Amino acid sequence: MTQVVLFNVFNGLIVGAFYALMALGLSLIMNLSGVINFAHGGFLAIGGYLAFTLMPYVGFWGGLVLAPILTAVLGLIVERVLVRRLYGRDPLYSLLLTFGLAFMFEDGTRFIWGAQSLPYQVPGWLLSPLSSDYFFLTGYRLFMVVIVALAVAGLFYILNRTRLGMRIRAGTLDLETVSVLGVNVRVLRNMNFGLGIYLAGLAGVLAVGQLGLQPTIGSSLIMPSFVAIIVGGLGSLPGTLLGGLLIGVASGVTTVFFPSATEAVMYVMMAAVLLVRPRGLLGEEGRF
Amino acid sequence: MGSNDLQKQAPNIVVWVLLLALPLWLPYVGGYMELGSRVVVLALAAMALNFLLGYTGVLSFGHAAYFGLGAYGAGMTIRYLVPSTGVGLLVGTLVGAVAGAIIGPMIIRLRGVYFAMVTIAFAQVFYFIAFRWNSVTGGDDGLTGWTRLPIHLGFTTIDILHNPVAFYFLVLAVFAVAVGVMAWLLRSPFGRTLIAIRENERRARFLGIPVDQHIWISWTISCAVVSVAGALYALLNNFVDPRALYWTQSGDFVIMAVLGGMRSFWGPLIGAAIFVVLQDYLSSQTENWMSFVGLFFVLVVMFFPRGILGIIRRKVAS
Amino acid sequence: MTLLRVENLSKHFGNLIAVDGVSMTVEPGELRAVIGPNGAGKTTFFNMISGFLTQTSGKIVFDNKDISNLLPARRVWRGIARTFQITEVFPELSVRENLRVAVEVAAGLRLSPWLSAARDRGIRARIDELLGMGGLAAKADRLVGEMSHGDQRACEIMMALALKPRLLLLDEPTAGMGDQETYDITQLIRRLHRDEKLTIVLIEHDMRVVFHLADRILVLAEGKMLAEGTPKEIAANEAVQAAYLGKVAA
Fold it and tell me: Is C135 helix (H, G, I), strand (E, B) or coil?
C-alpha cells in the first residue's frame, strides 16, 4: 500500500511539475500583459511535435534544446503579428484571439503530423527503473523532475538577477512607470511572451516523452494550468509553482482512493480556495 | 405610436417577422428546418451570455457548463424520471440556474480576465462529471435512449417529434418568453443598475449599489436562460454528450455575441446565425473545419471587434 | 450634535504610513475643507471615510453609529455620498440616464424589475429638478463621455446629490479645470451648501476656492494633522505656511 501511495504521490509530483511549468508561462504573460493565453496548450503540443521531427537529425538532446527555442520563436512572431495589437483593449479580445489560435494549432498539428498518437523515443538508459522496489522510479521520470527544477530555477534567476527579469517584474507592478523610465514596453512584452512560450515548449518536449504525442495533448493540459494559477494565487509566480505541485499531488493521491475523481479533485481544491481565500494561497491582496 | 417610437421598434418588428416566417423562406435560401431551430437555440444561449457580457460588463468564458447542465437536466429527466417534454425543459432550466446561483458567490468578487479564467475552470468540473459518470450520463458516448415527446394540450396534441416545423415553433415560443424577460429586465430600474455597473463599477458602488450582489443576480439570470437554451438543444438533438459542456462551446457563445455586436440586444442572434451556418457549411466541406473556425475567431477579433450591428450603428450615426 | 466623528484614523501601506492618527469632527451644516501639500494623505483619509479603503486603525462614527467596517454601499445608504478626484460617471449614457440611475437607487428601486407610471413620473420630476439645480437642463440628453470636464463634474455632483446625502464628500472638485469652470463649480457647491443646507467635506488644492467656501479647514501634512481652524486662523498659522512654503522651496 505504501508503495502504491508513494507511486502515486511521485506520479502526481511529475504531473504537477508539468502543470507548474505550463502555468508559470501562462502567469508570466497574464501578469505583464493581461492576456490569458488559451493557445498555450497549442504551443506545448508544437514543442513536442517539433522535438519529434528534429530527433532523427539532432538526437534526443538536440531536440530537448532546440524544440523549445523554436517554439519560443513562433511565440515571438505570434505576439508581434497578432497579440500585440490587442493590448490595452478589453481582455475579451485577446482571449478570443488565443482561443481561435488554440483551435488552429490543434487542428494544424493534426493536419501535419496526423491524428494518431506517435511514439516518442527516449534514450533507453533513461527508461530502466533505478530500483526494483520502487519500480516506478525510472530514470526518465527523475530526469523530468530535474529538468523542471532547473527550468524553474532558471526562470527565477532570470526574473531576480537579470535586467530583463527585473524589468518584467517592475512592469508587472506598474507598467506605466516602467515605460516612463525609458524601457521599451513593446520589446519587454515581446520578450516576456517568448519566455512564457519557451516554458510551454519545454513542457511539451518533456510531456510527450511521458504521455506520447497527440494533437489534443495541449488542450488536456491547459485547464489544470488555470487551476494551478487560481489555487496558487493570481499574480504570484511562486504561488503558481506551489499550485501546480499541489494539484498534481492531490490528483495522484486521489487516484489511489477514488480513481474516478482524479480530475475533479483539483476543481474541488479550487472551489475551497476561492471560498476561503479568494486571492489564492500566495496571492497578493487587491490584485485580482 | 410616434415615428420616433416606430424607428425604435423597427428592428424588433423585422426580427420577429423574419423568425415567425422562417419556415416559409428558409428552404428558398437552402436551409432546412433543423438548422433554423439550431440557430434560434444557440442565439438564445448567446443572448443569455450577452445579458452578462454586454449589459453587465462581466466576461464569462464558462457558460457551456450551464448550457450543458440544462441539456443533461432535460435529457435525464425524460430518460429516467418523467416522459414529458415540458417537465424536461423545466427541470433542465432549474438545474442550470441553481448550479449558477451556487457557484456565483465564489466568483463574483473576481473581475476581468480572472473572472473569465475561474468560470472556465469551474465549467470543466461539470464536463468531467458528465464524462466520468458513465452509468448515468452515458459518458463520452452521450445520453441516448430517449427522444422529445409530443405535447398533449388536452384538446389537441402537437407532434414536435416528427414535425420539425412544430418543433421550431415550440423553440421560438420558449425563445420569445426568455428573450422577452431579459428585454423587460433591461428596461427596469434593476436593469439600469447592471448597465451602470458595466459603465463604471466604482461609481455604481458609491451610488449605493452593492455591486457583487447585483452581479450575482445578473449571473444567475444569465445562467438560467442559457440552461433553457441547453434544454432546448437536448430536445433538438434527442441526444446530449459532454461536448455541450466543453470549454470550446463557451468560446463559441462568446464569439457569437462579439460577432453580432455585444452592445446590441439582437447582435448575438445575428452572430449565432452566421456562426451556425458557417460551421455547418465548413464541417460539410473540409475535415479541417476547426482551423477555419479558429481563423474565423482571429479575423473577427482583428477586423470586427465591434460586431456587425456595432459597425452598422456607427455608419448610421456618422 | 456632531454628524461625523473621525477618531485617530491611520492607514499603512506596507512600511509607508499614509495617514497617521488623524481626528476630525464635522457638525451638521458645516462646510469643511481638507488641505495639505501633495502626498499629505488627504485622498487616503477621504477614501477611508467613504469605505473605499479600510483603515489600519482608528474609528469612524457617523450619526452616532460606528461605520468603520461597513461596505461602501452601506455607508451610502446611511447618507454618505462622494465624488472622485478623477470624475467617475457613466460615460456612454446621457446626463438624464446617469441621474436616473442615482435617483432610482435613492428611491429604493435598485432591485425592482418594474416601475409604475406614477413612480416613473415622480422620478422624472426629480431628475428635472436635479438637472436644473446643476445647470445641466440644456445638455440633458448628451452623452456624458462627450461633455466638457466641468459639465461631467457637475453631473457627478448632481448624482451624489440625487442620493439625498446627509454628508457630501468632494475630492478636489475643481481639479484640472479652467478659471470659468472652477468658478461655476464653486458657485454650485456654494449654492448646495447655502440653499440645501448640505454638510460638505471637500479636499481642494485651489486656495481661492478653499478660503471662499470653507467654514473650517483641516490641514494635513505627511499624513499627520498639522492644524485646524477657521480660514482666518489657518491663514495666520505659521506651521501651515512653513509646510506649504517648505514644499515650494524644496
Answer: coil
From the list B189, B192, B207, which residue is nearest C76 (CB)?
Answer: B207
Nearest to A95 among B61, B122, B248 (CB): B61
**Chain B, 213-242: which have a CB under 8 Å from a chain C CB?**
214, 217
* DSSP assignment string, A46-67: HHHHHHHHHHHHHHHHHHHHHH
Size of interface A-B (CB pairs under 8 A): 123
Bridge-partner residues for C26, per DSSP?
C4
- Tens digit of each residue's pLDDT, chain B (318 residues): 456 777 888 889 999 999 999 999 998 988 899 999 999 999 999 999 999 999 999 999 999 999 999 999 999 999 999 999 999 999 999 999 999 999 999 899 888 888 998 898 889 889 988 988 888 888 888 898 898 988 888 788 888 888 999 999 999 999 999 999 999 999 999 999 999 999 999 999 999 999 999 999 999 999 999 999 999 999 999 999 998 898 889 999 999 999 999 999 999 999 999 999 999 999 888 888 889 989 999 999 999 888 888 888 888 877
Grid cell digits, residue C134: 446643476
* A111 touches B at CB < 8 Å: yes
Range of the domain at B211: 3-317
In chain A, what's the furthest Cα-to-Cα distance? 60
| Domain locations in chain A as residue ranges | 12-217
> Which residues sit opposite C202 in a β-bridge?
C33, C170
Instruction: Decide if C207 contacts C173 (C-beta within 8 A).
Output: no
How many separate helices (H) and strands (E) can be counted in chain A?
11, 0
C82 touches chain B (CB under 8 A): yes
The verdict on B123 touching A (C-beta cutoff 8 Å) is no
Number of domains in chain B: 1
pLDDT tens digits, B206-254: 999 999 999 999 999 999 999 999 999 999 999 999 988 988 899 999 9
Q: Does C88 touch chain B if contact means CB atoms closer than 8 Å?
A: yes
Q: Dump strand ranges (E) for chain B.
A: 151-152, 157-158
CATH of residue C221: 3.40.50.300
Q: How far is residue C118's CA from residue C105's CA, in Å, rounded to a whole number?
A: 17
Give the angle subtended at the CA of C142 by the CAs of C138 and C144, to the nearest 5°: 115
C250 or C177: which carries more pLDDT confidence?
C177
Residue B227 and residue B67 in contact, taking contact as beta carbons nearer than 8 Å: yes
DSSP E strands in B20-128: the ranges are none
Q: How many domains does chain C have?
A: 1
**Cα distance between residue C181 and residue C162, in whole Å:** 22
Strands of C224-229's sheet in order across? C80-82, C167-171, C199-203, C31-35, C216-221, C224-229
Are the beta carbons of C82 and C168 closer than 8 angstroms?
A: yes
Domain CATH number, residue B100: 1.10.3470
Answer whether B317 touches C (CB < 8 Å): no
